[in-house]
Amino acid sequence: MDIGKSLTYITEDDRWIMKLLIALAMSFFAWLIIPGIILNGYILAIARNVMNGAEKPLPEWEDWGGFLRDGFNLFIAILVYTLPFWLLMCIVGISTVGFSGLSEVSEDAAAAGFLATFGLIGCLSLIFLLALLFVNPAVIVQYLRHNNLGACFRFGEVFGIVRDHISDIAVVVGIMFAVIFVSGLIANIPCIGWIIGLLVGPYLAAVSGHLYGQIAAKAGGGTSKEEKFAA
């Protein structure tokens, strides 16, 4: 994995400022859902360029339909993989209502039952979310390799990517957390910190796109050779 390249390649593009400003706008309005989906599609476009060995991976903001399509497909794929988590949350909600009904019989028994259920489901949810940190990049890589939503649900292949590239995925997760942590510290600086804080979103998008593309290239996607991004 060429970590240094993923952190600095952005400025090698002559139009990187304009491209990042548009990404910033998409990030700022991500709460409207569609801009967030388009930004995810743009991340996939970056990753695809890296996977194919493009000299300057930052794509132009031209293929809006393609960004929307890819981003929506990724949104659906990730949503399916998070369904077990939402199921656990539903169980918590149902359990809360159920134990509330038992409070008239024995408040202590109801409280103990609720705490036991909540504690168990809380642990399971934490384990699931940690696993999702490694599964999500594998889903992205699988989509990049096949450009097909259905491929994301070939679970054997997805978990195979996690198994074969777990160290690379761990690097991606670690870098993301490190960038967020450092930017959080800088954001406390008046004025300049606030500006940097706004730029963290699009910068993370560009960095993560490059890293995903490197993993996809090593996993056998695109036209670039595996040695290009060898650890």
Helix-strand layout with pairing:
Blueprint: H1 3-8, H2 16-28, H3 34-51, H4 64-81, H5 83-101, H6 107-146, H7 155-164, H8 166-186, H9 192-218
Helix pairs in contact: 2-3, 2-9, 3-4, 3-9, 4-6, 5-6, 6-7, 6-8, 6-9, 8-9
In short:
The chain is an all-alpha fold and about 230 residues long.
Could you walk me through the main structural features you see in this protein, from its secondary elements to its overall organization?
This protein is mainly alpha-helical and 231 residues long. The chain has one domain (3-229). It is globular, with a radius of gyration of 21 Å. Helix 5 (83-101) runs antiparallel to helix 6 (107-146) and helix 6 packs across helix 9 (192-218). Residues 223-231 have low confidence and may be disordered. It is built from 9 helices and no strands.
What is the N-to-C succession of helices and strands?
HHHHHHHHH
Give the number of helices.
9
Beta strands, count = 0
What percent of residues are in strands?
A: under 5%
Radius of gyration: 21 Å
Could you name the key traits of this structure?
disordered C terminus, mainly alpha, 231 residues
